[in-house]
Amino acid sequence: MKIRKITAVLLAGLVMALGLSSCGSNSKSETPTSVIVWHYYNGAQQQIFDELVQEFNETVGAEQNIVVDSQNQGTISELTDKVLKAIHGEIGADEVPDVFAAYADTAYEIDQLDMAADLSSYLSQEEMDQYVASYLEEGRFSDDGDLKIFPVAKSTELLMLNNTAWQEFSSATGIDASSLSTWEGIAKAAEEYYNWTDAQTPDVPDDGKVFFGRDAFANYIIIGSKQLGTELFQVSGGKVNLQVNAEVMRKLWDNFYVPYINGYYGAYGRFRSDDMKTGDLVAMVCASSGATYFPAEVTSEDGTSYPIEGSVYPLPNFEGTDNAMAVQQGAGMVVTKSNEIKEKAAVTFLKWFTAPEQNVRFAMSSGYLPVTYEGNSQSAIDQAIKESGQPVSDIVRSSLDIGVTMTQDYTFYTSKAFKNGFDARNIVEYSMMDQANADLEQIQNLMSQGSSRADAVARYNTDENFENWLNSFETALNQAIDK
């Protein structure tokens, strides 16, 4: 009997020891939670993002058994196309990623397919209060508080200048930087620049140079309309009310289409930073994140190069408006609906990445703006630059400083997402620009046949031309929204 008791105790001890050993073994060999992130960052943006992902994997990820795999999917358009193909299960498509970068229109479409995870349950109210409120609001498509887009990096638009060319022009004409604060001032400065350069070759008429160009033309229309008192896409509960105000549109037309067909504005390369590199523009409006692409030198058609200095200004606004406005843009991250373990792991990474210590470092290298209130401060940026020990270009630093200031002094706006919003925005992006380019081509044909620029432009700068465009613009938007 005694022997049986001793044997039982020994067996129990052996089982317990084996059990503990087995548990310890499982803990060490447990498969980590893998989080695949699709993004569109490139150049310096991709480099810093990949560095931060590696840092997460070696620290918090290692502690919590999470491994993040960041994968570049080309441009944002290419990424969006791949995501939609994956979600719809098209033949040859990749598996749906756990996290992917998306603008609101795409996120809304994914949410309508019930494939976007609600992130609000993984964030406390205290945590949410740390983020810029409008950035979080962009990721909410209903009034129930669900959060479908996690803000990771934002940008706005800035005016960037070839200061070397500007100083020569300003000294010769007396045009000063105050003209750069309004769209009307930009148009007048561009006309003066055209006339000044045209006068330098008196034997060759009408060969003045272009002054200004801009990226993301839809922002000019959408933000301009809003600032002038009309919200182009008024969205409530996913339903959109289109508001095309003829008076507002005429002001937008007069301050872009008219300078464009006169040769004061232009667009040549894929982005306006490309045009700055070739010296085809002196000034441009681009995303604040575009600061990393601002050229240090201009390369002319004959292959000669010369260094330039850049300068940065806040986005111009219309004269007589009380509220300075700029776009709020920059894709956030959507977490694909899966299970609590996978979703929580994804949010753990996103919270870490957007903490000021990491997010400001990303902003400093990429030109994006941090997404928390704490990160949007000069002191946070100064601290990050000091700790990094890495040089930051003057143009990037100026972009960050002005961008941070604009978060306080400007109203940032972005249209709420709605069905077919992507198609509607494309119409806003291309309608006036396509009209301007088509008319400019005809003007240039007339000039090649001996007409003066003024006479050729007069044929197209008419009330009738504007009204025809406006009707086609509104019709196309209604068709896109209603389809």
UniProtKB/TrEMBL annotation:
Annotated InterPro entries: Bact_solute-bd_prot1 (IPR050490), SBP (IPR006059)
Subcellular location: Cell envelope
Keywords for this protein: Signal, Transport
Domain of life: Bacteria
PROSITE patterns xref list: PROKAR_LIPOPROTEIN
Signal peptide: 1-27
GO cellular component, one term: cell envelope
Main location group: other
Family: Belongs to the bacterial solute-binding protein 1 family.
Protein name: Extracellular solute-binding protein
UniProt organism field: Diplocloster agilis
Lineage, opening ranks: Bacteria, Bacillati, Bacillota, Clostridia, Lachnospirales
